Amino acid sequence: MDQIDWRSNQGGPVVIEVSKMKYSALGSLSGITTPAGQFDYGYDHNVRRVVKRAPIGNDKTRFRYGISDGNVLSEIHSEGGDETSLDYIYLAGLKVYALVIRDISGTVDHRELRLHNDRMGTVRMASEGDNAVARVVITPWGQAYDGTDFYKPVYDDASFDGLPMQHRRAGQYEDVESRLIGKVCSDEIAFAAEQPNLPRGVNKCSENGCED
Asked: Across the beta sheet with 189-190, what order do the strands follow?
């Protein structure tokens, strides 16, 4: 499947990489092959993504959900022997707080962040005290852009470089490896450009929004 990316300095869609995608019998994305290797996704009985496994070693991301509302309460990123966990608090369905616990080479660090959302429920900035530590600058097609590379936040505090901020609109998550944006709970993937004849479980999206 060709991945289509819209760049502001180009007049149309450009094929940027080719990936192979695997779907489960329920229509959920179960794996994707990229130039970096194979990524695998696991789900619980409610078809909510609970783990994403990277192709390198035991690197993976785990998700935990609330019982009543199904919101992502925490995500745990394991890379090598290091681990970063983010525990969230919600207000009116929006993430407003994150407790970040990082275990880097045996040194544990705790930080508390306020999360600032736009009107679409996208976390656009994380702040600590009165200072911004990371910002998500969104292109018209929904991609994060740090001024040099796509799919990356702007880190105002270098100590937070690499802080996971893939969440987009309320209930959605951006997979950097596939460059798709979807709902974490049901994995209804949305492309950055409108695509006809999509497989089951995939939404059609354009600059005017998404349709089931």
From this structure: 172-175, 180-183, 189-190, 202-206, 209-211
The answer to whether residue 6 sits within a structural domain is no
Do residues 75 and 62 touch, judged by C-beta distance below 8 A?
A: yes
Domain that holds residue 117: 21-204
Query: How far apart, in whole angstroms, are the C-alpha atoms of residue 88 and residue 95?
Result: 6
Identity of residue 178: S
Instruction: Give the H/E segment covering residue 212.
Output: none
Reported as a pLDDT band with limits 50, 70 and 90, residue 19 is low
In a domain, 211, yes or no: no
Is 0.85 surpassed by the pTM of this model?
Answer: no
The answer to whether position 3 is within a domain reads: no
Q: Is 11 inside any structural domain? A: no
Would you tell me how many other CB atoms lie within 10 Å of the CB of residue 81?
11
